[in-house]
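Risk register update: the risk of archive-format incompatibility is retired. Evidence:
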Amino acid sequence: VLGFLFFTLLQYSKNPFVSIVIPYFVISIPLGEIHVASGYVDFLFGLIASVGVIFLFLWLEKGRRVFYLAAAVFMLGFAGFIKANPFALFIIPFIVTVLLVSLRNVKYFLIVLFSLIAGFGLLLGPWFAFKGLYPWQIFGSLKFENHMDAFPFLFPVLFGEGNYNIFFFGFVAFLLTLVFKKFSTRHLALIGLTLLTMCLLFASFLFSQYGAYLKDQTTFNRAMLTVLPSLIFVVGIVVHDWLKIEKIAAEKIDVKRKRK
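Archived output:
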C-alpha cells in the first residue's frame, strides 16, 4: 500500500520530496506501528481506504472512468470486507462526494448512481446477507447518548500524547490556511470527503454509547487510524498544489521584471 502511495505521488508531482514526505508521515504514526503487530485491523482498513481515496483523486485529476471504478472497488469492496463500522463512516462521504462531482452532467450522474448501487449490491450484498443469517452485528448497535462532556478529551488525545506524531499540529495550520486559499473542484471534493468522515467519526463517539471509549482513550485512538492515512494524503496533495501554484505565480512575476 505504501509503495503504491509512493509511486502515485511521484508520478503525479514529479517531486521526490513530496513522494517521500507523505508516506513518511503515514509510516511514522507511532500508534500505527503498535497496531500493525496486534490483532486489530483498523490501520489496515485505513490503508485500504486510502487507496480508494487515491483512485478517487486520480479520477478527479484525469477524468478516466477506470480510476472511478477502482475507487469504488476499494471503498465498497475491500474496505467493506475488512470492518463494517469504519466502512459505514467512509461510505456516506464517498457517495456524497462522487454524486456531487457528477452533477455537472445528468447522464453521467445517473451512470455513477447506478454503478454505486450495482457495485454495493454485487460486492457487499452477498457478504452482508451471509452475516445477516447469523447473530452478528453488521454495523454495530449505536444508541444515541449525549457525551459532549467527552469533547475536551479530544485535545490531549490528538495533540498531547504523541500517538500521531506532529500531524495534527500541521493539520490545524492547514485548516487555518483554507480561509485564504482558492480551491479547485478536486480540492473541494477531497477536503470535503475527509472532513465529513472525521466529523462522522467524532460524532459516533460524542453522541453514542461509545463516548466512554473517548474518555478512557482506547477505542477512539484505533478508530482514528481508519481515517488518518487518507487525511495525510489529502493534506499533502492540496499543499503540494498550493506550493506549485505559488511557484508558477512567482516565476511569472520574475519574467515580467526581467522584461522591464
